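Sharing a chain and its predicted structure for anyone who wants a worked example. Both blocks are below, sequence first, tokens second.
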Amino acid sequence: MFPSKSTALTRVGPWTRWCWLLMAFALATVCVRADTVTLTDGTALEGDITAEDDSSVSIYLEFSGGTITETRRLNKTDIAGITRLTPEQRATWQAKRDYEEIEKYQLNPSVSYRFDYYDRIVRDVFHKFLANHPDSAYTSNVTARIAQWEAERDRVATGRMKFHGQWLPVAEGARLAERERGQQLLQQSRRLISQGRLETALRQLEIVLSMSAQPDLVSQARTLLASAFQQTIASLDRQRQQLETDVASAQQWVGRAQQAANTAEGSLKQTPGNAQSFGKAAPLTSSYRALGGDSQSFVQNQTAVNAARGDFAQAQSCLNQTRSQLDDVVQKLAALRSRASTDEAKWGIVAGGGSAVATKTQTAASPPTTTKSPDVLVGTAAWAKNNWVFMAVGLLVLLFLLSRVIKG
């Protein structure tokens, strides 16, 4: 038996009415958007007209979902027509805009919030919306959301927290959250150390070291921190040694350049009849040549002096720059060793932050190895080269004696 037509209509009627209401609401929200200003070129601007006078209209516009806003002033001579919202339409449009704004306040399915955050959002966001739009189509939805937020707030008030979607006692949830945070910091610190960003890595590792409830993570952080200090100190020490070598080379270059400049200036002074003997700059006149001056030799010597002086200036600049780099590295090394010593005492790590003197002392106190030095090997090879004849004769005599013993 099938239901009668009237019975079917009676059952479907309420749902049909709800569908019609929803469709009407959707059409209203789509059609009723804002004031519309149509320009003479056909462009339609939808927004909120904020001001108008005899010659112009100002309209507030939003782009990219409201992330970009602009109030544009339009001359009425450029406007073909204006469609204005009725008060009822404007109220509907404003409610829709405000509701889209509060949509970003959602409960997090993975984690809970602080207790005071729930009250603040309910009071300053949801209740404010209801006060501004008491009869809007969104009232029931916002009321339901207030109930959801207050229910989760009450659960937080009982001493529980949400962690990855599970409600746990606060102590347990905090411990798990701290552990996850510590693991993330360790992973980030390893990447930062590999990138040479030691200072940022140290700050993150010190956060992990303060997590007393995570002893295994603290142990990993100690090891990683000590390794970071040792690697960076060793790297800076190598830079220091290389720069010291560069400074010595630059000093030698300066010495050679100074000597070359002095030689060139001496040659210039010894040029027959040079202009300096007359107290003048460089007048290569006929009288100068008449006194025995060689203009070509003078010009060549003057060029050599200028080149030597330029080489000396370049060498001195290189020396100063290298010394500055060396001073910078030495300062960084001292600061890092001081930081390492502080962290050694604070966190109980062995970071190698001692001075270079202590390192040399430890090296001197270490037991000697049995490996032969290169000097001994070189000496042995030289002796064999100089006495190979006697070694060959001795070998032949030994072979002869062995053959006689075998035959006997």
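Comments welcome. DSSP finds twelve helices and seven strands in the chain.
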